[in-house]
Amino acid sequence: MSVEVYDTRTCSLGEGPLWHPERKQLFWFDINNRKMLSRSNGEPQSWQFDEYVSAAGWIGQNELLIASETGLFSFDLVTQKRRELCELESENSETRSNDGRADPWGGFWIGTMGKSAEPEAGAIYRFFAGKITKLYSDITISNSICFSPDKKYAYFTDTVSRKILRQPLDAEGWPAGESELFVDLRVEGLNPDGSVVDSDGCLWNAQWGASRVARYSPNGEFLSAITLPSQQATCPAFGGDNLKTLFVTSASEGLSAPSDAQGKTFQVPLSAFGQPENQVKL
Length: 282
Prior knowledge:
Order of helices and strands: EEEEEEEEEEEEEEEEEEEEEEEE
Strand content: over 45%
Number of domains: 1
Structural class: mainly beta
Largest sheet: 4 strands, antiparallel
Radius of gyration: 17 Å
């Protein structure tokens, strides 16, 4: 597989790639620098915010849902106007949003974490029908939020646990019963970061510190891995023509001697097909 640099800008903490299916455009974040990034007609774009922003879903042609350290808000890409949708741990100055993704029912799952990764300071929530509900507590680094194409499962991880969990869902997308172990990375000493699921139900996981994105079968079996020139891969997303390009964000933070590749956003052509990102319904 040929790995190419999609965008040459160096992110301190690149995260949250989202392929907008109507605009045919990739959006992602540099969390530490409080920016959302994109490209349009080959030209780089960026939007500066006054707080940490980390993840997004699409509401309409020109409107995104964006997760920040204090809440969820809609953002108009044309007018740049924002409308607050709900608060997200706004009373807690020690936490921020992290990984998030829209679910097949039009909801949006969003995780939080301590700004310095304080143990068990974060949680995972679902925003649905105008309300936000806490699903899981005592999360240190929320990641890997994604969904199976048959709507039966959600996936998530607390990165420090080195376990990716699978959560059965009911007919309205709420957790049904206990979560179960999907992939155990403890023996390999790998750190699961962001994930996305393809149209065959295989999960693609960026593994922080391992310079790779690994693919797992719907049963959690390791299938293959893509090696990246950046040590700290953070999150993959499918996009491009026919959703056959895997975009991967990365981070340069914390590296004593970062190379030119660290923190870049990459693209990899694949034979696998992704799923279209679900639309957020307000």
